[in-house]
Amino acid sequence: MTHIDELASLGTSTWLDDLSRDRITSGNLAEVIENKSIVGVTTNPAIFAAAMSKGTAYDAQIAELKAAGAAVDEAVYAMTIDDVRDACDIFLPIYESTDGRDGRVSIEVDPRISADREATLSQARDLWRKVDRPNVMIKIPATPESIPAITDALSEGISVNVTLIFSVARYREVIAAYREGIQRAAEKGLDVSTIHSVASFFVSRLDVEIDRRLEEIGTEEALALRGKAGVANAQRAYAVFQDIGAKDLPEGANVQRPLWASTGVKNPDYAPTLYVTELAGPDTVNTMPEPTIDAVLEQGGLHGDTLTGTEDAAQEVFEKLVTVGIDMEDVFAVLEREGVEKFVSAWSELLESMDAQLH
């Protein structure tokens, strides 16, 4: 049994945070599933921008789209949809054997429309229809404007990966949106057992932002808190999940599992498995870049359920952060804004690159 299997026995599914056509066509994705116990894949605009900027895997399709006079946005989504559809087919056996919990592949709506509820919902519907696979998840950011679109999409039977969650307060809104969407789906007579969702809580980015502020403060008390906020924040979120995540759901509905995202450490002083070993527990997903997966496989370090019963200690960390002068509300506002901006930037760069190839 590998350490990833051990993680699964604790209740945490491991998804790969990467996808490219090369991975699919070379057989690498199937190998990763077989050899590294991966049971899902997540993507985002930055991942696709990186994939399409390297190698020649997309050249033939780009030539076809160019000959057909495809618009830039249309061309990019044609290629990403093809990749996601093929990945869904590879993961289908896992999807079927886990009753839909795993075997999932996520594709994100255009980050540039994250402030437009109707546009977000329209694209979520379009992606759901075009990928046309039961194990796809549509990623929608947890911005205030997009949260109603999350409810709307779920109410129509669309499985949703809610992304870019940073604060527990926003997470509570996401849980409420999920509950309302599933209830509306049940009222329409939809089979709610087929609708799945995860709530993607970003981890390492919180440490990057707070560590920077702690270093600016510079006191011994402040510096002692470096590298603790990301885990503590996720543990606080997990306590909320345990408290209300399964409440008031219609019969047959699935719980919306917390998903730990951005779990590759950004600070080389921290253990590469930090956001895995300290965030293991029932009903969770951890989506990791492959180097983090490899570190877990090689180093292990798992020491049981590190989520259940951690709320008090996590809350103490947050109280200390406030005491030394960290403005948590400002931290979360900055991270949410920058999270959207980074995806918009990656998407815009991809569109510019594709425009040059099409014209």
TrEMBL record:
Pathway assignment reads: Carbohydrate degradation; pentose phosphate pathway; D-glyceraldehyde 3-phosphate and beta-D-fructose 6-phosphate from D-ribose 5-phosphate and D-xylulose 5-phosphate (non-oxidative stage): step 2/3
Please give one Gene Ontology molecular function term for this protein.
transaldolase activity
Instruction: Give the matching InterPro entries.
Output: Aldolase_TIM (IPR013785), TAL/FSA (IPR001585), Transaldolase_2 (IPR004732), Transaldolase_AS (IPR018225)
| Annotated Gene Ontology cellular component terms | cytoplasm
According to its UniProt entry, one GO biological process term is: carbohydrate metabolic process
Look up keyword Magnesium and say if it applies: no
E.C. numbers: 2.2.1.2
Q: Which reaction does it catalyse?
A: D-sedoheptulose 7-phosphate + D-glyceraldehyde 3-phosphate = D-erythrose 4-phosphate + beta-D-fructose 6-phosphate
Q: Where in the cell is it found?
A: Cytoplasm
Q: Which Pfam families match?
A: TAL_FSA
Q: What is its main location?
A: cytoplasm
Q: Record's Gene3D superfamilies?
A: Aldolase class I
Keyword annotations of the record: Cytoplasm, Pentose shunt, Schiff base, Transferase
Domain of life (superkingdom): Bacteria
The UniProt entry annotates the active site at: K139
Q: What class of enzyme is it?
A: transferase
Q: Which family does it belong to?
A: Belongs to the transaldolase family. Type 2 subfamily.
The protein's role, per its UniProt record: Transaldolase is important for the balance of metabolites in the pentose-phosphate pathway.
Q: What is this protein called?
A: Transaldolase
Question: Which organism does this sequence originate in?
Answer: Corynebacterium pollutisoli
